[in-house]
């Protein structure tokens, strides 16, 4: 059995957490890119969404996570009972999630579905892999918003596609590895080919943003439909 060795040290994130909504039960935030959701085992990776928020809300717990490089909407529970109720909604897949992303190259189809099971492999850590034998079911929808070119410093042009991504499941790195499988990795993705295309090497961040989060308030029963515009 392979032993996972995590050598990643997160550079300090100077961007603040943006608080979008809060009540006695939950908090909605906009997580900046470059901030861990949860503190790592390495003491140098202490800074995180949770580490910052417990200083203000001592009982708060994370309901779900976003990757280090992903920005956008997260819901945080203010106590264990709310956490359990929200986790139930996530596990039942009744939570609506939508992401905005920039993909390398121009997609041929205007929309489609990526259905490919994802597996963990300690030997490849931190990468995930597509595996029909060992993987857990994973399904993502994509829809093209626009195809365009970005002007490069050398006068060249970088083809990009802006898409909306809607995951049906919530596997680790799902959108990133599914876009790579599609042949159009997310711009700035260092793990799955988003810095390989000429002109992408210096991309400042992972171009993936959680822009919509829809769920039922566990106490009031009211639907919360939250939108946060993409910063790129």
TrEMBL record:
<keyword id="KW-0413">Isomerase</keyword>
<dbReference type="GO" id="GO:0009982">
    <property type="term" value="F:pseudouridine synthase activity"/>
</dbReference>
<dbReference type="GO" id="GO:0140098">
    <property type="term" value="F:catalytic activity, acting on RNA"/>
</dbReference>
<dbReference type="InterPro" id="IPR050188">
    <property type="entry name" value="RluA_PseudoU_synthase"/>
</dbReference>
<dbReference type="InterPro" id="IPR020103">
    <property type="entry name" value="PsdUridine_synth_cat_dom_sf"/>
</dbReference>
<dbReference type="InterPro" id="IPR006145">
    <property type="entry name" value="PsdUridine_synth_RsuA/RluA"/>
</dbReference>
<feature type="domain" description="Pseudouridine synthase RsuA/RluA-like">
    <location>
        <begin position="25"/>
        <end position="180"/>
    </location>
</feature>
<dbReference type="GO" id="GO:0000455">
    <property type="term" value="P:enzyme-directed rRNA pseudouridine synthesis"/>
</dbReference>
<dbReference type="InterPro" id="IPR006224">
    <property type="entry name" value="PsdUridine_synth_RluA-like_CS"/>
</dbReference>
<dbReference type="Pfam" id="PF00849">
    <property type="entry name" value="PseudoU_synth_2"/>
</dbReference>
<dbReference type="GO" id="GO:0003723">
    <property type="term" value="F:RNA binding"/>
</dbReference>
<protein>
    <submittedName>
        <fullName>Pseudouridine synthase, RluA family</fullName>
        <ecNumber>5.4.99.-</ecNumber>
    </submittedName>
</protein>
């Amino acid at each position: 059995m392979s032993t996972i060795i995590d050598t990643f040290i997160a550079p300090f994130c100077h961007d603040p957490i943006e608080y979008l909504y809060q009540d006695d039960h939950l908090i909605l935030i906009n997580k900046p890119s470059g901030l861990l959701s949860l503190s790592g085992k390495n003491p140098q990776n202490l800074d995180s969404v949770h580490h910052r928020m417990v200083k203000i809300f001592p009982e708060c717990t994370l309901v779900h996570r976003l990757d280090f490089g992903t920005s956008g909407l997260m819901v945080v529970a203010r106590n264990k009972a709310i956490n359990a109720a929200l986790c139930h909604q996530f596990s039942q897949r009744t939570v609506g999630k939508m992401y905005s992303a920039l993909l390398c190259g121009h997609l041929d189809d205007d929309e489609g579905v990526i259905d490919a099971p994802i597996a963990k492999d300690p030997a490849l850590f931190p990468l995930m892999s597509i595996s029909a034998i060992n993987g857990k079911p994973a399904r993502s929808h994509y829809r093209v918003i626009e195809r365009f070119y970005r002007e490069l410093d050398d006068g060249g042009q970088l083809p990009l596609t802006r898409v909306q991504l809607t995951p049906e499941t919530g596997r680790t790195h799902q959108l990133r590895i599914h876009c790579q499988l599609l042949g159009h990795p997310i711009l700035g993705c260092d793990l799955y080919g988003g810095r390989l295309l000429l002109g992408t090497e210096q991309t400042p961040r992972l171009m993936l943003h959680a822009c919509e989060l829809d769920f039922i308030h566990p106490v009031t029963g009211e639907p919360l439909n939250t939108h946060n515009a993409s910063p790129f």
